[in-house]
Amino acid sequence: MHNQGRSYTDLSAEYGPSVDSIRNWVKLYAVHEVDGEKWTQADVNALQKENDKLREELEILKRAAVLLSKYN
What count of Cα atoms within 13 Å lies in the side-chain half-sphere of residue 72? Predict the structure, then answer.
């Protein structure tokens, strides 16, 4: 509704959530197109979280490989 011209203040008055909450929701779920694919900020946040986890797992595997190479 905000993207169709309604202000955060109007939406807040009509539906109850704070102006800041509505602003955050709009930011979180706005759709951005990158290389022909559409992404929301929620998608990007999920991918960043997954990437962080994979980097941590990779670091653990690297440490394990170093330890195993010392015993061979």
Answer: 6
